[in-house]
Amino acid sequence: MLGEPSPLSPTQVSNAHTPHTGSKSMSIAALDAAIEYEIRMGTLDPNMDKKHMRRIISNRYAAKKAHDKKINKIVGLENHHKELENTIATLRPKVEQEQHFKSHLRVEKEMLVQRLQITTEMSKQKDAEFSMYTMERGWLMGMLGMLPPPPPPYNYDAGPSGL
Questions:
Q1: How many helices and strands, by DSSP H and E, does the chain display?
Q2: Helix (H) or strand (E) holding 6
Q3: Has residue 137 been placed in a domain?
Q4: Residue 163 lies in a domain
Q5: In this structure, what DSSP letter does residue 160 have?
Q6: Whole-model pTM?
Q7: Buried b (16+ CB within 10 A) or exposed e, 122-147
């Protein structure tokens, strides 16, 4: 048996499953094949108890499985990290553009607020001027005895007359 090739390589042993249960633990046949392989490779003492050897191989399998799972998780996290960095690199110019646009809008808003304040102030001055002229007209017409007749009441239901 020492000169024969291993019935199962370490990769095949790590992928061996119990066929009838479908569980992920290694079958006894797979464990025994792995034990034979390990004894031929010189990593296990052939004088050791068979049950103890199975436990060692089973623990190695579990450790390899946990290690592979950890490596896969790390690779997945690294890939996700790269994706996020690419997203950041893509969005950074857009954010800067939006910030520039926002500052432009802020300046425009300030200008419009100033225009509105000026327009409102001018409107108030025109209203005051109109009131003053209306009062002056009334005073002058009163002085001349030419008070105009009061305007007819506005009929809101009919709308403006003459249309």
A1: 3, 0
A2: none
A3: yes
A4: no
A5: S
A6: 0.49
A7: eeeeeeeeeeeeeeeeeeeeeeeeee
